[in-house]
Amino acid sequence: MTYLQDRYINPLTDFGFKRIFGTEANKALAIAFLNTLLPPHHQIQDLTYKNTENLGNTPLDRKAIFDIYCQASNGQRFIVEIQKAKQNFFKDRSIYYASFPIQDQAQKGEWNYQLAAIYTVGVLDFIFAEHQQEPDLIHIVKLKDQHCRVFYEKLQFIYIELPKFTKTLEELETPLDQWLFVLRHLAEMSDRPQRLQQDPIFNQLFEVAELANLSRPEQDSYENSLKYYRDLNNVIDTARQEGEQTGQKTLIVRQLTRKLGTIPEPLQTQILDLNGEDIAALGEAIFDLHTIPDLETWLRSHP
Q: What is the DSSP string of the chain?
C-alpha cells in the first residue's frame, strides 16, 4: 500500500492538511504557519479550534463546511483551506464562507457591533487564470474604496498560488519560504533536510507527518484521502485534456460515488450527457458537493 512506500503524508490531501494544521495537539504548527502570513499586530499567541461545519440562520440556509476554522486568543478568526482545483464562483465561495465567522461574533442583547479581525487563508494548488503571467504567488485582498485606500482592515483574504513557488532547498530565505517548500515537497521527501531541522517547529511537523507514526485506522484514512486526491487529479487532468471522452466521465461518476454514495441512474445519465466544458467544470466542483441534492442542484444549473 502507498503508506508503506512513502515516508511522509501528502499535506495537500484532506487528511494530511487537517492532521498538520487542524488538531489541538498540533496547533503550534498552525500558529507558526499563520504567523508567517500575518502582520505584526495580529500575530497569534494561542488558538482554539471551532466547529468546522456552520449552519445558516434557518434550516433552508446552505451549510458551510471549512477545512479548518480557529480562533486566536485575542479573538480574531481564521478560515484555512486547501483548494486543489479552480472552481466556478470560487471567489464567491470565499466571501460566503467569511460571512460565518462574522455572524459567529454576534451577541445577544445590547451589542456595539465591534468585530474581531477575520482572515481567510487559501492554500491553492492552482493559479488564478488572471494571474497566470504575474510573478506574485501571494495575493492579499482587503476591502478598499474607489481611491484604493483600505476601508476596512479587519477582513482579509490571503491566497497562496502554490504552483508558483519554485525555490529549491538552498534558495529558502524566510520562514514562509520554508513552509511553502514543505507544502510542495513533503510527500517526496525520504529524509528530513538538515536545513529545516534547525527550526524545532519543523522537527515537530516531520514527527506529525511521518506515516510510521500513524495508527492503523489513521493509515487507512490517509490511504483513502490519498486515493481521492489522486483520482481528483486524474479527473481534472482528463477533463482538461480529453473533453468529452467517455472514460473521463466514468471516472467522475466513480469519484462522485466514492464521495456521495450510489449515484441514481438518471443523474448518471445527465452526467454522461454533459458537454466537454461542463464535465470539466463538474470535475473541478467535486470539492463543493457534499450530498446527492447538491449534485442535483449543480446539474440543474448546467442543463
A: -HHHH-SB--TTSHHHHHHHHSSGGGHHHHHHHHHTTS-GGG--S-EEE--SEE--SSTTSPPEE-SEEEEETTS-EEEEEEE-S--TTHHHHHHHHHHHHHHTT--SSS-------EEEEEEESS--GGGTT----EEEEEEE-TTS-EEEEEEEEEEEEGGG----GGG--SHHHHHHHHHHHGGG-SS--HHHHTSHHHHHHHHHHBGGGS-HHHHHHHHHHHHHHHHHHHHHHHHHHHTT-HHHHHHHHHHHHHHHSPPPHHHHHHHHT--HHHHHHHHHHGGG--SHHHHHHHHHT--
